[in-house]
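Structure ticket #2291
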Amino acid sequence: MTNKFAFLECTNLACSFRFPLDLTLFKGEICPRCGSALRLGSHQSDQWTPEWDGNGAVNLVGILDNIRSAQNVGSIFRTAEAASISHLYLCGLTPAPGENRALAKAALGSETRVGWSSHKNGVHLATRLKTEGCQIFALECLPESENIFTPKANKPLPQKLGLVVGSEPAGIDPEILALSDRKLSIPMAGKKSSINVAVAFGIAVYRLLHS
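Resolution: structure written out below.
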Protein backbone atom coordinates (compact mmCIF):
# COMPACT_ATOMS: atom_id res chain seq x y z
CA MET A 1 0.00 0.00 0.00
CA THR A 2 1.42 3.39 -0.98
CA ASN A 3 1.87 5.76 1.92
CA LYS A 4 0.18 9.15 1.41
CA PHE A 5 2.30 10.94 4.01
CA ALA A 6 5.04 13.47 3.37
CA PHE A 7 7.12 15.54 5.77
CA LEU A 8 6.63 19.30 5.66
CA GLU A 9 9.02 21.87 7.08
CA CYS A 10 8.63 25.53 7.98
CA THR A 11 10.83 27.85 5.91
CA ASN A 12 11.27 30.19 8.88
CA LEU A 13 14.67 29.17 10.30
CA ALA A 14 13.70 30.45 13.73
CA CYS A 15 10.81 27.97 13.74
CA SER A 16 11.87 25.03 11.51
CA PHE A 17 8.82 23.03 12.61
CA ARG A 18 8.84 19.69 10.75
CA PHE A 19 5.93 17.27 10.78
CA PRO A 20 4.23 14.52 8.74
CA LEU A 21 0.91 15.19 7.03
CA ASP A 22 -1.48 13.23 4.85
CA LEU A 23 -1.25 15.00 1.51
CA THR A 24 -4.86 14.13 0.66
CA LEU A 25 -5.96 16.20 3.67
CA PHE A 26 -3.47 19.06 3.40
CA LYS A 27 -5.30 22.19 2.26
CA GLY A 28 -2.88 25.02 3.06
CA GLU A 29 0.74 26.08 2.83
CA ILE A 30 1.12 27.88 6.16
CA CYS A 31 3.06 26.64 9.20
CA PRO A 32 0.61 25.88 12.04
CA ARG A 33 3.16 27.12 14.59
CA CYS A 34 4.35 30.48 13.22
CA GLY A 35 2.35 31.17 10.04
CA SER A 36 5.34 31.12 7.70
CA ALA A 37 5.44 29.27 4.40
CA LEU A 38 6.00 25.52 4.33
CA ARG A 39 8.21 23.53 2.02
CA LEU A 40 7.51 19.97 0.98
CA GLY A 41 10.08 17.50 2.26
CA SER A 42 10.61 13.87 1.38
CA HIS A 43 7.77 11.40 0.99
CA GLN A 44 7.80 8.54 3.44
CA SER A 45 8.77 5.25 1.82
CA ASP A 46 6.18 2.54 1.41
CA GLN A 47 5.63 0.48 4.54
CA TRP A 48 6.96 -3.05 4.69
CA THR A 49 5.37 -5.80 6.77
CA PRO A 50 7.83 -8.41 8.11
CA GLU A 51 6.78 -12.00 7.61
CA TRP A 52 5.20 -13.60 10.68
CA ASP A 53 7.31 -16.45 12.08
CA GLY A 54 5.59 -17.06 15.41
CA ASN A 55 4.59 -20.36 16.96
CA GLY A 56 1.77 -21.45 14.67
CA ALA A 57 1.15 -24.62 16.71
CA VAL A 58 -0.25 -22.60 19.62
CA ASN A 59 -3.84 -21.38 19.66
CA LEU A 60 -3.43 -18.30 21.85
CA VAL A 61 -6.42 -16.37 23.18
CA GLY A 62 -6.44 -13.26 25.32
CA ILE A 63 -8.49 -12.86 28.49
CA LEU A 64 -8.97 -9.22 29.51
CA ASP A 65 -10.15 -9.17 33.12
CA ASN A 66 -11.81 -5.87 34.12
CA ILE A 67 -9.62 -3.52 32.07
CA ARG A 68 -11.34 -0.13 32.28
CA SER A 69 -9.34 1.84 29.72
CA ALA A 70 -10.84 1.75 26.23
CA GLN A 71 -7.54 2.98 24.81
CA ASN A 72 -5.70 0.04 26.35
CA VAL A 73 -8.29 -2.41 25.05
CA GLY A 74 -7.98 -0.90 21.57
CA SER A 75 -4.19 -1.24 21.72
CA ILE A 76 -4.56 -4.88 22.76
CA PHE A 77 -6.79 -5.47 19.73
CA ARG A 78 -3.99 -4.13 17.51
CA THR A 79 -1.46 -6.44 19.15
CA ALA A 80 -3.88 -9.35 18.85
CA GLU A 81 -4.20 -8.86 15.11
CA ALA A 82 -0.45 -8.45 14.62
CA ALA A 83 0.33 -11.58 16.66
CA SER A 84 -2.44 -13.72 15.12
CA ILE A 85 -4.31 -14.16 18.40
CA SER A 86 -7.48 -16.09 17.63
CA HIS A 87 -9.89 -14.48 20.13
CA LEU A 88 -10.15 -11.85 22.86
CA TYR A 89 -12.47 -12.50 25.81
CA LEU A 90 -13.61 -9.19 27.31
CA CYS A 91 -14.60 -9.82 30.93
CA GLY A 92 -16.32 -7.80 33.62
CA LEU A 93 -15.83 -4.04 33.16
CA THR A 94 -13.77 -4.38 29.97
CA PRO A 95 -15.34 -2.25 27.21
CA ALA A 96 -16.28 -3.88 23.91
CA PRO A 97 -16.09 -2.56 20.33
CA GLY A 98 -19.03 -0.32 19.52
CA GLU A 99 -19.34 0.97 23.06
CA ASN A 100 -16.53 3.55 23.01
CA ARG A 101 -15.03 5.61 20.20
CA ALA A 102 -11.70 5.71 22.04
CA LEU A 103 -11.41 1.94 21.64
CA ALA A 104 -11.96 2.15 17.88
CA LYS A 105 -9.49 5.03 17.59
CA ALA A 106 -6.75 3.02 19.32
CA ALA A 107 -7.60 -0.24 17.53
CA LEU A 108 -7.43 1.31 14.03
CA GLY A 109 -9.84 -1.21 12.56
CA SER A 110 -8.34 -4.32 14.16
CA GLU A 111 -11.46 -4.68 16.34
CA THR A 112 -13.32 -5.68 13.17
CA ARG A 113 -10.76 -8.36 12.25
CA VAL A 114 -10.07 -10.03 15.61
CA GLY A 115 -12.70 -12.33 17.10
CA TRP A 116 -14.04 -11.22 20.47
CA SER A 117 -16.84 -11.86 22.94
CA SER A 118 -18.05 -10.19 26.15
CA HIS A 119 -18.45 -12.08 29.44
CA LYS A 120 -19.87 -10.75 32.70
CA ASN A 121 -17.82 -13.09 34.89
CA GLY A 122 -14.16 -13.79 34.19
CA VAL A 123 -13.99 -16.64 36.71
CA HIS A 124 -16.82 -18.47 34.97
CA LEU A 125 -15.11 -17.96 31.62
CA ALA A 126 -11.73 -19.22 32.84
CA THR A 127 -13.41 -22.28 34.38
CA ARG A 128 -15.15 -23.05 31.09
CA LEU A 129 -12.00 -22.64 29.03
CA LYS A 130 -10.12 -25.05 31.29
CA THR A 131 -12.83 -27.68 30.82
CA GLU A 132 -12.28 -27.22 27.07
CA GLY A 133 -8.59 -28.05 27.41
CA CYS A 134 -7.21 -24.51 27.55
CA GLN A 135 -4.36 -23.79 29.95
CA ILE A 136 -4.51 -20.42 31.71
CA PHE A 137 -1.38 -18.28 32.05
CA ALA A 138 -1.73 -15.22 34.30
CA LEU A 139 0.51 -12.20 33.76
CA GLU A 140 0.87 -10.83 37.28
CA CYS A 141 3.64 -9.64 39.60
CA LEU A 142 3.58 -12.16 42.45
CA PRO A 143 6.35 -13.72 44.59
CA GLU A 144 5.68 -17.09 42.94
CA SER A 145 5.53 -15.77 39.36
CA GLU A 146 8.11 -16.96 36.82
CA ASN A 147 10.25 -14.38 35.08
CA ILE A 148 8.96 -14.66 31.50
CA PHE A 149 12.50 -14.21 30.12
CA THR A 150 14.20 -17.02 32.06
CA PRO A 151 14.98 -20.41 30.48
CA LYS A 152 12.62 -22.01 33.01
CA ALA A 153 9.72 -20.04 31.56
CA ASN A 154 10.74 -20.97 28.03
CA LYS A 155 9.32 -24.48 28.08
CA PRO A 156 6.94 -26.04 25.54
CA LEU A 157 3.59 -24.27 25.33
CA PRO A 158 0.24 -26.04 25.45
CA GLN A 159 -1.68 -26.35 22.21
CA LYS A 160 -4.42 -24.07 23.55
CA LEU A 161 -3.40 -21.19 25.80
CA GLY A 162 -5.28 -18.31 27.43
CA LEU A 163 -3.18 -15.32 28.53
CA VAL A 164 -4.86 -13.26 31.26
CA VAL A 165 -4.15 -9.60 31.99
CA GLY A 166 -6.10 -7.70 34.61
CA SER A 167 -7.09 -4.38 36.06
CA GLU A 168 -4.08 -2.12 36.61
CA PRO A 169 -5.08 -0.96 40.09
CA ALA A 170 -6.67 -4.22 41.30
CA GLY A 171 -4.76 -6.90 39.40
CA ILE A 172 -6.17 -10.18 38.15
CA ASP A 173 -9.13 -11.62 40.06
CA PRO A 174 -7.72 -13.91 42.82
CA GLU A 175 -10.10 -16.70 41.77
CA ILE A 176 -8.74 -16.57 38.22
CA LEU A 177 -5.22 -16.68 39.66
CA ALA A 178 -6.20 -19.78 41.61
CA LEU A 179 -7.32 -21.42 38.34
CA SER A 180 -4.13 -20.47 36.50
CA ASP A 181 -1.74 -23.18 35.36
CA ARG A 182 1.20 -20.78 35.39
CA LYS A 183 1.87 -17.26 36.63
CA LEU A 184 4.33 -15.12 34.68
CA SER A 185 5.89 -11.73 35.33
CA ILE A 186 7.93 -9.17 33.43
CA PRO A 187 11.05 -7.99 35.31
CA MET A 188 11.05 -4.30 36.22
CA ALA A 189 13.40 -1.72 37.67
CA GLY A 190 12.46 1.41 39.56
CA LYS A 191 9.79 2.02 42.17
CA LYS A 192 6.75 1.25 40.02
CA SER A 193 5.66 -2.38 40.30
CA SER A 194 3.77 -2.52 37.00
CA ILE A 195 3.74 -1.22 33.44
CA ASN A 196 0.87 -0.29 31.16
CA VAL A 197 -1.35 -3.32 30.63
CA ALA A 198 -1.40 -3.03 26.84
CA VAL A 199 2.41 -2.82 26.76
CA ALA A 200 2.72 -5.78 29.13
CA PHE A 201 0.30 -7.83 27.02
CA GLY A 202 2.35 -7.17 23.89
CA ILE A 203 5.64 -8.08 25.56
CA ALA A 204 4.20 -11.33 26.92
CA VAL A 205 2.49 -12.36 23.68
CA TYR A 206 5.60 -11.96 21.56
CA ARG A 207 7.80 -13.62 24.17
CA LEU A 208 5.49 -16.65 24.31
CA LEU A 209 4.97 -17.00 20.57
CA HIS A 210 8.62 -16.43 19.62
CA SER A 211 10.29 -18.39 22.39
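Closing remark: The mean pLDDT is 88.
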